[in-house]
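Researcher: We plan to redesign the surface later, but first we want a full-length starting point. Tokens attached.
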């Protein structure tokens, strides 16, 4: 079992620079709450990093273009991003949907939600 985190951002240095600038200049219109609460403007949030490193559950992180390339299939559902999926026995299911991620206010609320949902598995 592992969690797959998919950011609503594309890969590459140019995209990373624009994302950082967007978070600084106009954070209320930034399209990836998962990015905003797991990363600061330039580096990974320390609280999130400690949680991630201490977790016994494998976590994989993709930007949306990387995820779509890696999991390309005509049978793959159309997902809204950001998103967290649970992969178990090679099956993917939504663990935390985009709407729910976008309602989370901070790193601590994400960690609590992940812990709560993992408890049921």
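Model: Full-length starting sequence:
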């Amino acid at each position: 079992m592992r969690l797959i985190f998919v950011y609503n951002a594309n890969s590459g240095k140019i995209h990373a620079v624009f994302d950082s600038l967007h978070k600084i200049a106009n954070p209320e219109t930034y399209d990836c709450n998962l990015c905003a609460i797991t990363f600061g403007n330039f580096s990974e949030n320390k609280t999130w990093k400690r949680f991630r490193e201490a977790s016994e559950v494998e976590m994989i992180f993709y930007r949306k273009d990387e995820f779509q390339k890696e999991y390309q299939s005509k049978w793959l559902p159309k997902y809204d991003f950001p998103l967290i999926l649970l992969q178990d026995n090679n099956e993917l299911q939504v663990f935390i949907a985009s709407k729910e991620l976008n309602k989370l206010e901070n790193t601590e609320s994400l960690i609590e939600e992940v812990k709560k949902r993992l408890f049921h598995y």
